[in-house]
Write a structure and sequence with these properties.
Elements (H helix, E strand, L loop, with lengths): L5 E5 L4 H13 L3 E6 L11 E4 L5 H11 L3 E4 L6 H6 L1 H22 L2 E7 L21 H16 L3 E6 L2 E2 L9 H10 L4 E4 L3 E2 L2 E2 H13 L4 E4 L6 E2 H12 L6 E4 L19 H6 L7 H11 L3
Parallel strand pairs: 1-2, 1-4, 2-3, 4-5, 5-6, 6-11, 7-10, 8-13
Antiparallel strand pairs: 9-12
Bound molecules: NADP nicotinamide-adenine-dinucleotide phosphate.
Length: about 300
């Protein structure tokens, strides 16, 4: 049995935050203090909930002083990638300045910060990125997440940065992620146009939350790449989902990224080398088929 720790969790109502709560509640004795922007928690059973805007420096300092956590897990972020291009100031405040708030606050009681980052810190020209690969973000979102990483690394505080990608999974009142949006559209027999030239390694939120628990239990620091174990295009992912969920795959039409006119440029070939996470943390993330079957059972479909 690992010694239970007091952990302050931000973004508790988000896709990853809800899964961290579930996994930590079921698989550990750690005591979570939940926090998010919203005035209530989607699921706080067994844990206290504290409403807080992480961009408010004094509030963050007060909270860390009051709860005195050994660890802060920051899953809160401004996650709308295209929105970051137009909402630059707000996205920077949430994705970068708020992380600096946690750095300042964590000096009060030497809390460790576990922060979530993204494959969008890379340009996606080569893929096969490991934790030492050189970042080169294409989008404002990627730039803000890289700036948050750099703030943590240069701060000298005890921290761990977990980069992930194409997160999907279940949760209450969460923003529709790629898989949930597809399920909803295909269920309604809507035609969906999906890019066949953007490749990545989709990650079920359960695997990421489990990896974060391992970082806590094994007391690991530094950068970790944690994502699903299979590399494929968004189009291939959509077809796989249609087959597993019993939808008509003819509703899925392949298109090119250039047809979409997205505000933010995306890395086209984003693959992570998972060796460090697999060996250090002893985790084995699911492939897409197994991840989608897990999602299907979680959704009761
Ligand atoms: N989703 C992906 O595909 C993906 C891929 C790579 C990396 N990541 C990273 O993984 C982490 C978790 O992502 P996610 O998909 O779980 O995000 P999410 O579902 O969007 O959840 C983020 C949560 O943070 C909250 N939040 C936003 N601004 C806040 C503020 N100022 N103060 C306090 N809370 C605030 C949001 O509240 P509101 O809903 O009210 O805004 C939301 O509940 C993020 O760091 C993200 O950058 C995600």
């Amino acid at each position: 049995m690992k010694e239970p720790k007091k952990i302050f969790l931000t973004g508790a109502n988000g896709l990853l935050g809800q899964k961290v709560i579930e996994v930590f509640r079921n698989e550990s004795e750690h005591k979570l203090i939940l926090s998010d922007l919203h005035d209530k928690a989607e699921d706080s059973r067994g844990f206290d909930y504290f409403q807080m805007d992480i961009t408010k420096k004094e509030d963050v300092k007060e909270a860390v002083k009051k709860f005195n956590p050994q660890i802060i897990i920051n899953t809160a972020a401004y996650t709308n990638v295209d929105g970051c291009e137009t909402e630059r100031e707000l996205s920077w405040r949430v994705n970068v300045d708020a992380v600096k708030n946690f750095i300042i606050a964590s000096r009060i009681n030497s809390s460790k910060v576990i922060h979530i980052s993204t494959d969008y810190v890379f340009d996606g020209r080569t893929g096969n990125y490991d934790e030492n690969s050189k970042p080169n973000p294409l989008s404002y979102y990627g730039k803000s997440k890289l700036a948050s990483e750099n703030a943590l690394i240069t701060s000298g505080i005890n921290c761990s940065i977990v980069r992930t990608m194409i997160l999907y999974g279940s949760g209450k009142n969460i923003r529709p992620n790629f898989a949930l949006w597809l399920i909803d559209s295909l269920e309604k027999r809507l035609l969906v146009k999906i890019v066949d030239d953007q490749f990545g390694m989709p990650t079920i939120s359960d695997d990421l939350a489990w990896g974060i628990l391992k970082i806590v239990d094994l007391d690991k620091s530094g950068i970790y790449h944690i994502c699903g174990s299979e590399y494929l295009s968004r189009y291939e992912f959509a077809v796989r989902l249609a087959n597993i969920f019993g939808f008509d795959e003819n509703l899925i039409m392949p298109i090119k990224t250039s047809d979409l006119n997205q505000a933010a440029a995306r890395p086209m070939n984003s693959s992570f080398i998972l060796l460090k996470a697999e060996t250090d943390l002893n985790i084995k993330p699911l492939n897409v088929t197994d991840g989608l079957y897990l999602l299907k059972s979680l959704l009761g479909l």
